[in-house]
Structure formats: structure tokens, C-alpha cells
Amino acid sequence: MTTRTTPEPPAAAPLLDLQALVVAVRRRRRLWCSAALLGLLLGAAVAVLLPPPPTAVTKVLVAHQQDQPNDPGTLIRTDAALLHTTRIAGAALRSLGSPEEPEDFMADYEGTGLTNNLLQITATGDSDAQAAARAGALADAFVADHVRRIREASDAEAKTLLEQRDRMRDELAQVNEAIEDGPQESGPKASANLETLFARRAELTSRITDFGRRAAEARVGTPQLVAGTQIVDAPRAVRHSLTRTAATNAALGLFLGLFLGLAVAAVTAVVADRPVLRRDIAAHLGASVLAELPRRPAGPWRRRRVRATRERLTASLARTARGTAEPVSLLELGCARDASGIALDLARALAAEEPVVVVDGLPGSQLAGRRPKPGDPAVVSGADAAAVPRQERLLGVGSVAPGTAWADLPHLGTRTVLVVRAGHGSVAWLHTVARQLADRRVAVIGVVLIDPDPRDRTDGTLWDGPHTVPRAHGERPGRRNGGGTSHAVQAVGEERPRTERLPMAAARVPDSDQEAR
User: Fold this and answer.
1) Which residues are within 8 A (CB) of 55 and not within 5 positions of it... i.e. 6 or more apart?
2) How many Cα atoms occupy the beta-carbon half-sphere of 435 within 13 Å?
3) For labelling alongside 429, which of 274, 353, 368, 400 has CA 20 to 30 A away?
4) Lowest model confidence (mean pLDDT) among 112-126, 140-154, 466-480
């Protein structure tokens, strides 16, 4: 029987990898921290360089004829809007004796409804005295205008009621005259008409009395509204605290700068599409991460840890170079200085057993412009590599940055270690590097990740398939180190069977061979 084995389809990639986005934003902390600091400084500078003008406030109690307990504040908002009219502004300017235009003066004050009946007027000026005078003039002009409108409304209402009363008095006089004249004829019809006249006279008398009462009430209520509209808080200058204003503006600037910095960092991280996690870099380059090196170690303890990690990396690369007869190279992407340092360390480790010559294929002067120290290996350019004796080992150092001469990479070494700075190359460029090296048959041993994210917990190991390779009897699984590599430790004295795994593309069985023969 032949069992058909179909590989599991890969999971669909999410539209937005939140983990990668958070790491990318955190790596751009210099950007948003600088933006937050700039916002803080600008906010404090605005408070110091642009202080608020002298300001005065006053409060006016406003009485309305249509006051209701459930009023949502419509009446006081109307009063605040009436305050910003040329009529009130002009009256205030006339009381101040100022030649300023009302349209220009309206930009220097504002009204705010604190409650349904309390209006606050805020005015600015060249000095505290001028601001207080402006606020008082505005309050007086508003009270006078409000009282005038109340009186005009009550007078108009009383006049209308009195006119209605006078018309009914005339009609009542006509009815009384008809009653006094009496009916011209007798009978039931005449009696009914007389009763109708008496009823009409009683109705008119009642309505005349009602209209007179309402007119009197309209005029009586006006003094109450006039007395209820008054200035309850005299104009006074507002004292500004420079320290408090600077602290408030600095806090607002810090918040806005931090928000804008985070937004810019997030947008640029999504648009740039530069992998920072080791799993993404390994997947796009098609090689496992061998080791990681911080770019700028801070503190003596960090330097010791980086030095120990670099020594282990040098020893591992030296064992790899000694175990192969093919030339080995180091190709950098975004970290030429680190790659040149690793190459020199590796060359010093190999020079203890055999002469080593470093072939400088870097575009800059990282190796060519350095000062040689005693015991350093010889460094030659790519053009002089052909003149090196065959008994000397060549260690190439090159670059896979944009603009690389891809045809020259095989001359540096047919087996290479990629030294890549996290977050430097885009996804498209990492694919280009992997494809170009594969086309030129340059085998990638692994990736050395420079400046990794310290909180990255992803796996940088590439596995051939969904299942592990079958182990021999007595073989135990190897321990995965921090760099993401995996090994298998074989029992002493036992031979490990040679096993191979088909590529993922070849794991499917053709349809014609699905059934057992």
C-alpha cells in the first residue's frame, strides 16, 4: 500500500502583523521620543514667548420671560450670540469713546453661558485696566439692550391687549345701545333676541375685564425682569500663572508630539515593510539565524556579554570554515562595520593554523581604510585576489546592498554567511538577495542578525517540512540555542542512518500513483 501524503497548506498571512508592527514602532523610539520632546519644548516655548493678553471677566444674571425649569440652555446661548452683534459692540465702544470698528472689537471678547441665567463675558485689551473697562462696557451695553428688548416686548403685548379691549368696548357700547332701544316688536322671537343681547353683553364685559387684567400683568412683570437682569460679578482682571500655563502647554505638546510620532512610526513601518523579527528575516532569506549581536551595547556588563557572544560566533564560523574546502565569505546588508569586524576576528582565528588573506569586497573603506594592528591578516582588494598563493586561505567580505555587482559574489566565496541588520532591508530586497545568491550557486550557511529586538521571542530556524527528520535508535533531540539553530546529538558508538526529506513542492504524489499496486 502506498499512502498519499499531502502537505498541510500554509496558514494565510494576516493583513497586519501586530507583533511585527509593535516591534517596528518600538525600534523607532528615537523618532517618537524626539517628537514628544519637541512637542514639550514647543508647548513651553509658546507659553513663554507668546503669553496670553491681559484679560478681564464679568458675570451677568439674565432674566427671561420664557424661563422654564427644563430649558436646555437655548436662551442663554441666544444671549451669548446677541453679545456678538455690532449693536452691542458699537454701544460699548461709544461708552468707552473708542474709535475702533465694532467688527474688529468683536474679535476681542466672547460670551459663555455658565448656567441657564448666568452669562460670563471675557474681554481682552492692551492692559488689565483696559480689559476690565471693556468687559464692564460690554456688560452695561448688554444689560441695557436686554432691558430695552424686555420693555419693548411688554409694551407691544400690552398695546395689543389694550387694542383688543378697546374694540370690545366699542362692541359692548353697541350692544348696550341695542338693549336700551328695546325690541321693535313683541313675541317669542323678540324675547330670544333680547336674551342673546344680554348674553353677548356679559361675554364682552368678561373679556374686556380679562384683557385689561392681562395688559396690567404684562406691564407689572416688566420691572421684575428688569431688576433680575444685572451684573452680579464686577469686571476683574484675570491673573495668569506663567508656570501653570507653561506646564499645561508643555503637557499638551508632549501628548500631541507623542501621538504624531507614534502615528508616523506606525505608518512608516507598514509602508516600508522592513522585517525586524528573526522568523521573518529567516523566512525571506531562506536561511536560519545563527547568532545575534547588539549593535550598540550599553554598559560594561552588556559589553562583556556581546564580547562573549562574538567569541562564540567566531569559534563557530571558524569550525565551519575549517570543515569545508570551499572559500567562505561574509556578505553584509546594512552593517558593513560589524561585518568587517567579524571578518577580522574570523581571520585571526583561522590564522593560527594556516595563512589567511581577507578579500575586501566592501564598497566603502571599512577594511581598506583601517590601520593594521600587529597580528592582523593581510587585506587585499578583489582585483588582487588572483595573485594570492593557493596555499593561503581566502576569506571574502562583501555586500548585498542595492547596487551590488552580483557576478562578483561567487569570487568572494561559494559559501557565505549573511550579516544582516534587523529592519534594514525590505521584504522585496531580501527576496532579491536570496534569489541572486541561489542563481549564482552561492550556498548560504546562515544569518548573523545585527541589532535584533531584545524582546523578540520568535524562532529563526527554518525547518524542511511539517515533521522532523526520523531519528536513529538512541538518538536524542538537540537543544535549541538562542540563535534559533537546531542540532541532533547522536549516541556514541551508534551509526545514524542517512535520511532525506523531499522538498515541499515534491511531496505530492501524482494522481496516477495514488493507489497501491
Assistant:
1) 122, 123, 124, 131, 237, 238, 240
2) 6
3) 368
4) 466-480
